[in-house]
Amino acid sequence: MHNRSLRAFRLVAGSAFVLVVAMLLWTARPHHPVSVHKARPGPPTAPRPPQGLVPDPIDGLLVPYQLAARRPIAIIIDNFTQARPQWGLSAASRVYEAITEGGITRYLAVFAENDADRIGPVRSVRTQFLDYALEIDAGVAHVGGNADALALIHQLPIMNLDEFRYAAAFRRIPAPHVAFEHTVFTSTAALRSVIDQRVALEGIAVAPASWKDDAPAAQRPAAGSASIAFSLPEYAVTWTYEPATNDYARSLGGVPDTDAATGLVLRAKSIAIAVVPRTHGRTVIGEDTWTFADIGSGRAWVLQDGTAVPGTWRKPTRADRLRFFDGAGHEIAFDRGPQWVEIVPPEVSQTFSP
Question: In angstroms, rounded to a whole number, what is the distance separating the alpha carbons of residues 105 and 236?
Answer without folding.
Answer: 10
